[in-house]
């Protein structure tokens, strides 16, 4: 039997980082994850619809054309570049294409985190365990949406800043963050995370300067970070909407009503099984600080405090928190592992470092990504049959629609000839319209008036929704379609 | 200089000590500010406890079968807090709502005072101890309601204090037996929170196992825990109380119906105190880097988890970890190198401690409390206008509606049973005793099935008619903006009987 030469084996064997990347990619592109990523809410559909409209019109959207409640009003599409990417992937392989982009982004983010932890001198076992824990904590918000770019860019920004802290190359930092910001501001409104991370480093440098620790270097760091921050601020204006994008983000963050509207902005419900990963992360963080008692720099302390608070405040901040805090916690854990299991740690590290199996990983990944598998919006959660009925009987469903908020994006995508009442872009619709919408769904005293004001001719709501029960009693309205998921009521009054 | 020092050490009969000042400040603030209305009006449970307590006083027996609801009439009742209900009802029968507020304020103030005493007795600096007690008070304030759990907070301070003393060899196991066994018998009859005490013993038991020198304490502590567990059977329901609590906690749908059982909402200002406690904790871990004992790590970890799991555990978390924070921060501050802020802190702390040692103002404190009680009691005794009016908030509860429902017009129009708002159940039990409620704050008593039926109507789901039919509901009393009112407005077989800014009453046509 011929033995395969060692050099060949090296090129066939992926490193731990590559294994991690490939495993995550394969898991995410398998069921149920790929369907969950595109169908957990309607936002994936609306991003695809907006992107498709931009591809068709060959221009960036500036005016609303998707809803009858805000028709013709100025529109800011903060994730226009992601929307186009999603739509292009959708053109190539349908929802599988979008799931593939999301899976690639998630796998790349955590593989880069693993790479960063190993590169910074942490133990391979610790790096792998931490990344797996981060994956578990973050999976609560794995949705095929532009937010995934923000998690990746948060990691890259932090990585660049950590490198600057060690090496002090100001120009390199400026160039990296400038390019990142240029992409980020056009991909997702989460570019403000970049300023938050930069702000933590700036504050750390300021505190070091005030405390007089290595004051010359601290002052240099402070001035560099100030200059880079200003540069990034200037670069962030290079988007199709200029300063108006920043103002719309600011307006959204200022509004408690709008923030409370989104379930992803809610605090974690720790009784839910999906919160276990986050709970495990918090427990690990506490144990590292309480038992291993690491010496933590000012910057790390600020990042740890602010991002733990952010993650407690809103579920959607959990992934960013894990990628920012993992490099802070890893050194203390690495020291412990190396102290107790020096041989295992060293052997695994050198084995992983020798592996060069990226061609194998690339081939497998390409094969999986380029072979679309069925990815549909599930008919047991979404009004698939009802929408088909509407498409089959267009004459029955003329005029304005009133729809369930979560279904808005799906309806945008599936019924492009009809304009929705509302969809996932709550920040665009604003407090006034959302209040009218919730008054109607809650059957508040003005609910009939809202339907009249917007000249609603038909409604598409979940079968068990109270609005259906009320419409059944309202003169002129009758049930045009009903199944286990959705009911359609039409108004016969003219 | 000598004169100044002499002045500092002079006894000041008019000046209360810092601990007493903390007690007085919270007692007076809770009685005199708008907080007294929050204590009794945040939900309907204070009304429910008063009503049950009054029933027991009236019938001279412990409640064992439900006389208040029409959905579970005569069903067996496990009274988890019968003794506190009696106390609350006695206070309320004597002084009205002011009596309940007085009792609740005294419990809260005493809890904080005891915590302050504990921190000082463990050798912490007065300034730090006071600051930390104020932070703990902020965290606890998210659950300051005139309800029996306040008794648990108070007893928990004593319990945790003694256990810390036992671990540090300041309290012997004999002393623990003498103190804990009677205490747990009282506690189990006052509130179901006695379980927190047993959990604390279990945490110390596990924590002691980590160090060789403390392992010898495990056996006596285990014996104490077992004795306390069996002693806790001395309640009107015996072991059934424990089973009842475990069964209830095992039904997440039932438990999470109530907001206070859900995780803290960090968007709300109510969570600020909890955030502040966590901030102090993390800052301590990052900056002071103390060597925590295994029990301390377990206490922070276990109660931190419970607090994140359920907002009502936040006060317990604050009470349990404040002494840990105080000990390690005190140690850190005493070892800090000399700097201008530290010099200033030490000077202020020293001055306050000196002043505190000279303060012996118990008499003015007693006078102030006596004056307050007199101001509340005198109008009640003389049937004159109250100086400090304490009534249920009319914009939260259907006060005017209940007045109307007691009138002859409503009595003639109403038939069948009531369907009521969950949060108003307790209020209706107390103020409309002639009618039986559909549901009230005792979701543990009503059970999962009835709560599901209630939600079917309350959330206006298909099949709501069957539920109302099943329970022979003839009229509803719900918040004015409730969606069910809008639905009934469209029905020909229901008609509007009464409406004001708070509530709407619909009746079914005969």
Features:
heterodimer; A: 494 residues; mainly alpha; 4-stranded mixed β-sheet; 22 helices; B: 510 residues; 2 domains; 24 helices
Describe what this molecule looks like in 3D.
The complex is a heterodimer of chains A (494) and B (510). Chain A has 494 residues and is mainly α. In chain A, 65% of the residues lie in helices and 5% in strands. Chain A has helices spanning 6-12, 16-29, 33-39, 43-57, 80-119, 124-138, 147-167, 170-187, 192-211, 215-235, 243-254, 256-261, 276-292, 298-313, 318-340, 342-354, 358-369, 384-392, 408-414, 426-441, 447-453, 466-471; strands at 400-403, 456-462, 477-482, 486-491. A four-stranded mixed beta sheet of chain A has the order 1-2-4-3. Chain B is mostly helical and 510 residues long. Chain B has two domains: 2-33 and 78-358, no CATH class; 399-508, no CATH class. Chain B is 64% helix and 5% strand. In chain B, strands 1-2-4-3 form a four-stranded mixed beta sheet, covered by helices on one side. Chain B is globular. Classes of the chains: A mainly alpha (494), B mainly alpha (510).
What's the short story on this structure?
The complex is a heterodimer of chains A (494) and B (510). Chain A folds into two domains: 319 residues, no CATH class; 108 residues.
String of helices and strands of chain A: HHHHHHHHHHHHHHHHHHEHHHEHEE
Span between termini of chain B:
89 Å
Number of helices of chain B: 24
Q: What global shape of chain A is seen?
A: globular
Share in β-strands of chain A: under 5%
- Helix-strand pattern of chain B, N to C? HHHHHHHHHHHHHHHHHHHHEHHHEHEE
